[in-house]
# Entry
Amino acid sequence: MMDPMAWWHDAVAYQIYPRSFADSNGDGIGDLRGVLSKVDYLAALGVDVVWLSPVYRSPMDDNGYDIADYRDVDPMFGTLADLDELIAALHARGIRLVMDLVVNHTSDEHPWFVESRDPASAKRDWYIWRPARDGFEPGTPGAEPTNAGSGFGGPGWEYDPARGEYYLHLFTRRQPDLNWENPEVRAAIYDMMRWWVDRGVDGFRMDVINLISKTYPAVDGPAGPDGLCYDVNMVANGPRLHEFLAEMNREVGITERDLFTVGEMAGVDAELVRSYTAESARELGMVITFEHVQVDQASAVKWDLAELKLSKLKSVLASYQYALAEEGWNALYLGNHDQPRSVSRFGDDSEQFRQASAKTLATTLHLLKGTPFLYQGDEIGMTNAGFTSIDQYDDVESVHFYEQALTMGLPEAAVLFAIGVKSRDNARTPMCWDASPGAGFTTGKPWLQINANHDRINVVEAMSDPNSVLQHYRRLISMRHELAVVRDGVFELLLADDEELFCFTRTLGSERLLVMANWSTGSVPWPHGVPDISGARLLLGTHPDPGDVLAGWESRVYALPVE
Ligand code: GLC
Ligand code: CA
# Structure
């Protein structure tokens, strides 16, 4: 059974992508003192947890998801003392801090990897080294040990002349994968985690954590058009994953110390998530899953666009609600630093519907059972970047894809269109605090272009409007704090096949909530097949004077009368 007392069950987490949040010194890059200047904003929003994307020392090949020193802050972001100050400032406001833990791989500049390149060193087995394929000259085309592809395109193996062997990198070649089979590696990681907990952090968001035990790297997988295998299922959820997660929990004291843990896992379904998050397993608190953010792609490749079918999205989300009803716990999200802006993707970012759709997406997500994750800027309904030229992009994944796709002969316009829809940079443009030229983010030249609509879509604007998306989020967050039925209520999906309405109930004892959300621009008549609302109390709505039709992107939450 799940721990009924787990503190994150009525918590809302807020993700900060530090490079894009607030810049304190005018160099155009967000930093820790910038975050410090916004702690009262976070407290006013009402969030309980801050997840800080990586601020560790890093050459920034993948914006800090390539770590060169796990125990230091990159000078770009500030100092360890700044981080200590931030932890204290958040704690003083009752907000906990969760660090990003990137331990599937390090940077190629991490001293462990530098040492491992020497075959005589004590760390020679700390990474995944393999000789060239039989019969091939090392370093020549096709000599990679297997056809494993990297998550960002191209081979997942890189030849290292110093070592005379290949190392595995499931992300960029500057992110070599650690060898978790080696007990010394695991011990070093747990030691580092304890060091952070002793410093005051309240938990970890664990980057691509189901890759630490690999079914690789023994064999070739099914090849795509470029001869490489990108199927995450060939790699993920290896045979020792449960063992490693349980060991980490024990060694770091995750359960004993009541730490917040959320593991990022591509290639899982609801049943697997239950096995990792069941209280009795003592592994993870919850899991960031991907099925629901893949419903708008036509294949395993994210750039392969498909139309979003609401029935499909609902069935995926509901499958997790049902599978984790009795044990385990959901992490709920529609956006983060790897996904496009949720309002542009799932909602409608036109002038007419942007605010209503941002609110309705929020209502739908926050009324599900689980811990909602709110990504910076979504609380004001920030939109996709609107970039039209490849020079505007920074993200290593987008730039790789662009180069690869053009090499393979795809038309540039189609490639730029797909990147415009799906690029991670959509979510990475600077946070818009006000209408000034630097959007209140920076006084200098921002590292990534500020969204052109920041004169309208910014925090100052949202604060002054009682009907803003921001105010709506504040109400949703307090509903979760105040109503046990939001935390614990049993979920039931209504009208599963409807392509416009997202409707469900949550029930706890005699308390019952009805959520009615119109995920379309047209008005929809009140449907049959939902509980009678006579005598119900409207707890939250997006539109004034709700009538007997649901207007475009309108949503409502009712408390049904006690029977
Ligand atoms: C995760 C991160 C992403 C990063 C990747 C490699 O998916 O969220 O930003 O690029 O892992 O570390
Ligand atoms: Ca800065």
User: Anything to note?
Assistant: The chain has 16 helices and 20 strands. The two ends are 28 Å apart (CA to CA).
